């Protein structure tokens, strides 16, 4: 698979606004795999894998949602996980 994998941590108004479920909906509709999880410090961690243009589209959509307000994003690239098949909301 020609793609990218990113791990991102979002700060801002990102919990209690549907961030995880919007991420899941977008990921499933775009064919992106990975996971999303609320953190105890009020941030959200998102690990996504897919074609670069689709990953960018997902991130753009999250950043332009009327309920989500992203103040800061920390991120890094990761090696691809070839066997990953789905996107999950982790609790």
TrEMBL record:
Domain of life: Bacteria
Enzyme class: hydrolase
Keywords, alphabetical: Hydrolase
Residues annotated as catalytic: 20, 38
Keyword Hydrolase recorded: yes
Catalytic activity: an acyl phosphate + H2O = a carboxylate + phosphate + H(+)
Enzyme Commission number(s) from the entry: 3.6.1.7
SUPFAM superfamilies: Acylphosphatase/BLUF domain-like
Domain named Acylphosphatase-like: residues: 5-91
Alphabetized GO MF terms: acylphosphatase activity
The UniProt record lists the keyword Hydrolase: yes
Family: Belongs to the acylphosphatase family.
Protein name per its UniProtKB record: acylphosphatase
Taxonomic lineage of the native organism: Bacteria, Bacillati, Bacillota, Clostridia, Lachnospirales
């Amino acid at each position: 698979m020609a793609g990218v994998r990113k791990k991102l941590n979002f700060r801002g108004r990102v919990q209690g606004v549907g961030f995880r479920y919007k991420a899941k909906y977008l990921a499933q509709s775009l064919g992106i795999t990975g996971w999303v999880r609320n953190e105890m410090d009020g941030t959200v961690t998102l690990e996504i894998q897919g074609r670069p243009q689709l990953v960018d589209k997902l991130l753009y959509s999250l950043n332009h949602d009327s309920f989500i307000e992203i103040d800061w994003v920390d991120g890094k690239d990761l090696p691809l996980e070839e066997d990953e098949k789905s996107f999950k909301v982790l609790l």
